[in-house]
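This part of the workshop introduces the protein records we will be handling. An example says more than a description, so a record of this kind follows:
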Amino acid sequence: MSNIYIQEPATRGKVVLDTTVGDIEIELFSKECPLACRNFVQLCMDGYYDGTVFHRVVPNF
């Protein structure tokens, strides 16, 4: 098994989703969950979420 994720730097990042009603800022915890963060960022870069409809929005959640 590869130890690539153990060697990841302890950094945090943010992703900004641009929506028709404003931006959504998502903070990533790459040290705590590197695989999930890497997959999410890759999906964003591939345009996976482009045109996605939010079906439930909770104010001040």
Q: What stands out?
A: Helices lie at 34-45. The mean pLDDT is 80. Residues 1-61 form one domain. Strands lie at 12-19, 22-29.
